[in-house]
Amino acid sequence: MAISVDVLATALQEQFPGATELFTSWHPLFDEIIKKGNKQTLKGPWREFVVVTGGPGDVKQIVHGSENIPGVRNQNAKRGTAYAPRLIYHFDVPGKDLSEANGPQDLARILKLYPEMGLADFHERLSRQLATGDGSNVGGFPTFNANTTFSPDGVALDGLLQALAPASQTKTVHGLNCATTTGWQNQYGSISGFGTDGLQEMRRAYYKAQRQGKQVMGKVDLIFADEESYLNYLNELDDPVRITHAEAKRGIGDSAPNDIRSGVMFEDAKMYLEDSIDTSATAYSGSAAANGVFYMLNTATWELFIKGHDSGMETKGDFEMRGPFRIPDQDAWRTEYVLSMGLHTISLRHNAVVTGGATP
Fold first, then answer.
1. What are phi and psi of 30, to 5 degrees?
2. Could you give the 3-state DSSP secondary structure of residue 273?
3. How does pLDDT run across 106-117, given as a tens digit for each residue?
4. Are strands 172-173 and 352-355 parallel, antiparallel or unpaired?
5. N or C, where is the chain less crowded by C-beta within 10 Å?
6. DSSP helix/strand/coil, 337
7. What is the largest CA-CA distance in the chain?
């Protein structure tokens, strides 16, 4: 018996009710952001948020008891902006495939061939865009790579993390220029050769980011590395140390690295081998990160936001699925995954970039 479109639609809805959860649990950054409660639904066309680059006041020492305490209000609060691109991943199921399908086994094959592979493809494109900045047809999604740009709303914006010393950072991130905004720079470390100063430069950048008010914002807890940098890091560790760090965290709730990705500990941060970082890509050409890169993130300083409210119309923008519906003048039915999601940080200085890790 052939499979009807209604049967396929029902199977799709039952098979993929949690496309959002699939992506956020698959990608460690989004998993950590959501666990910290830093995900919101956008109520306007863009996200505007407060960025605090330093303390709001000053200290007055009292010696005699009659001193006046002057009013102080340091203008360290700025307004940042971020945008959510609207991305629609679509695939078509030919009517011929449905007419030739017969029973549960064929239905399972169709679900594997189209929806499952489609969702996985969408995930990989977004991951590539975030890590390298050249994800196919998802160029509106943010990227860490400041050597390239992303365009969520038709205007090119700079990537978020710069592979430069703070004093040399000149990009505009979330509408704020790093060269003219005090405290609006990420930390940076440069490795000359991993066997020479690799661990030292990693620790230096890690602790620089940690010293930026960890009482309020915590510390670096997540690191992404390209393959060569990651392997060089492993080679520098003695086997007993490596096992202790990896095994000690296993089985303790969400402290263990995600099973889908390889991970070990660096200090108190989880480090992942990020296949999506392609330092040989044109997007990294001319950047120090082309010689390997570690992105050190304080996930408490990152926020996700989505745009959309009505599942029956524009969708909630959270990998929500629409369809299948008949394509006019074609014997095919289309299904869509709709994503309208943005990402921003409220404090660059709590995050760090370390380059040169691929150099032995």
1. -70, -35
2. strand
3. 766 776 777 878
4. unpaired
5. N
6. strand
7. 94
Among 319, 316, 318, smallest CA distance to 308 is for: 316
Phi, psi dihedrals of residue 239, rounded to the nearest 5°: -55, -45
Its sign, for the CA torsion 298, 224, 284, 164, is: positive
Residue among 129, 159, 128, 147 nearest 287 (CA): 147
Look at 188-202, 281-295, 325-339 and tell me which has the smallest mean pLDDT: 325-339
Distances (CA, A) of 70 to 58, 64, 67, 74: 9, 16, 9, 12
Flag whether pLDDT at 72 surpasses 60.
Answer: no
C-beta of residue 170 within 8 angstroms of C-beta of residue 179: yes
φ/ψ region of 200 (left if φ > 0, alpha if ψ in -120 to 50, else beta) reads: alpha
What does each C-alpha distance from 114 to 36, 90, 108, 122 come to in angstroms? Answer: 33, 10, 10, 12
Specify the pairing of strand 172-173 against strand 302-307: unpaired
Distance, in Å, from the CA atom of 194 to the CA atom of 139, rounded to the nearest integer, reads 32
Q: Is residue 123 within 8 Å of 117, Cβ to Cβ?
A: no
Structural tokens at position 36: 């910290």
- Beta-strand ranges (E) seen in 76-208 are 77-82, 86-94, 149-150, 157-158, 172-173, 176-177, 187-190
User: The tokens of 95 are what?
Assistant: 């009517």
- Spatial separation of the C-alpha atoms in residues 173 and 162, rounded to whole Å: 10
Compute the distance between CA of residue 201 and CA of residue 99 in angstroms, rounded to an integer. 61
User: Which helix H or strand E contains 232, and what residues bound it?
Assistant: helix 227-236
pTM: 0.85
Beta strand 149-150 pairing with 352-355:
unpaired
Rounded-to-integer distance, Cα 43 and Cα 306, Å: 9
Instruction: Report yes or no: 132 and 226 within 8 Å, Cβ to Cβ.
Output: no
pLDDT digits (tens, 9 = 90+) for 11-48: 666 655 555 566 767 788 988 998 898 999 988 788 99
Q: How far apart are CA 344 and CA 304, in angstroms?
A: 7
